[in-house]
Amino acid sequence: MSFSNIFLRPFHTSKECYHIIKMSRLRVVDNSEIGRRAMAEGKPPKCIHVYNKKGVGTIGDKVLVAILGEKKKGILVGVKKHQPPRVPKFDTNNIVLIDDTGTPLGNRIHVPIPVMLRTILKEKTFAKGVDYTKILAIASRFV
Amino acid sequence: MFSNLYRQCLVEKHFVYNLFPLCKWSQCFASSQPELATESTIQAFEEPEKRSIKLEQRFIYPEFLPDPKIEWRNSIRERLERQDMLKRRSQIEIPEFYVGTIMAVTSFTPHSTSKKNRFLGICIQRKGCGLRATFVLRNIIDNLGTEVAYHLYDPTIEKIEVIRLEKRLDDELFYLRDALPEYSTFPLDMEPVILPDNTPIPVNTTQVILKPRPWVGRWERTDFKGINREHMMTLISDKMKMQIAKHQKPWEKYDLMKQYRATIPEEEQKEIFAEVYSQLHQLELGKKKSKRIRTFVKPKKSA
């Protein structure tokens, strides 16, 4: 490889990490009206904020997404990035849309979700705050 | 390459040392000597069965061999790890498996109400040495590709089942992520297929058809035999085709030092397996015995 080639390259050569950061495209996996329409039109939601200190989302994190010109909140229920042992890694970055009280917009999740989400979401739920555990009730399968 | 050289030396040494005992043996044995350079003849000289068993074990128990990286070698730690591995193996049955084998792992989890979690899938990678040995299972569940990595000696694993014991053409099958879903879809309630004893491990020679790009890897630049190359060439651009030759490294197979640094020498392998052989053998015998007990079904009275 010639010397000039290195500087002319417009791309980086390291392997991608599949981090969920701002502007990442996600996939809605519940049957909410807006989510289904967005996926069918080929306009998957875009992450515009990750509600944690790192700015990189992982399983159980809340994200703000731009979906069909609207702002919605969602919970990540499966990610593509490398995971520690015994934690499932999926082929897509999946979210379930929720409203401000934590109630999911759809009433069914049609993909498997990780078992550890049970504990994570229970920990994040407070007595008079947002109740995330309703997502677990609409899940069809855990892995 | 080095091991070949070593074997050559070994053959000559054996030839010299074993001439005398050879003469003492029967004539027919001596007459079958012309093909001296083959491995089987070396085995015939010394430790007739043991040697072949020991060298075969590097495929069955690859994690018993330490990491060949010299900076990370530590003979005491390696020995301690081997003892721990044997202890773990006496607790649970860790079966023989290869990349391409369909397996199911039941592990304890604090997250679910049943406290147990079972995942079935095809083994797409097996790596790591000692207690850090891991394997990755892949399956497509509800049309979504799911992968789970496990430590082989994880104390939270309750049971490892081999559903279909087979090998593939490659050492890792990450290209299944980009292959059509039917190649990595297995029903979660798959029935185990039991091979009769002493049969060679079947090799699955399927060549997968890839989905159109984008892919997770540059599969056109690799030489995986499990990918249907003809079909793959129809999916890539002319520019990519031109770049294939540029990225090939045909000199690597002549790089003796690279090969040497990536492998454990034969003498050391034999030493390690001699150390663990008796215990592994005992475990295997116990496994066979328990299997026989389990398969026994009490005949029912008719009428």
From TrEMBL, chain A:
Subcellular location: Mitochondrion
Molecular-function GO terms, alphabetical: structural constituent of ribosome
Gene3D superfamilies: Ribosomal protein L14
Record keywords, A-Z: Mitochondrion, Ribonucleoprotein, Ribosomal protein, Transit peptide
InterPro entries (alphabetical): Ribosomal_uL14, Ribosomal_uL14_sf
Main location (coarse class): mitochondrion
Name of the molecule in the record: Large ribosomal subunit protein uL14m
From TrEMBL, chain B:
Alphabetical list of Gene3D superfamilies matching this protein: 2.30.30.790
Family: Belongs to the bacterial ribosomal protein bL19 family.
MF terms (GO), sorted A to Z: structural constituent of ribosome
Protein name: Large ribosomal subunit protein bL19m
Biological-process GO terms, alphabetical: translation
Keywords: Mitochondrion, Ribonucleoprotein, Ribosomal protein, Transit peptide
Entry's localization field: Mitochondrion
Main location: mitochondrion
InterPro entries, per database record: Ribosomal_bL19 (IPR001857), Ribosomal_bL19_sf (IPR038657), Translation_prot_SH3-like_sf (IPR008991)
Cellular component terms per the entry's GO annotation: mitochondrial large ribosomal subunit
PANTHER family: LARGE RIBOSOMAL SUBUNIT PROTEIN BL19M, RIBOSOMAL PROTEIN L19
UniProt cross-references to SUPFAM superfamilies, sorted A to Z: Translation proteins SH3-like domain
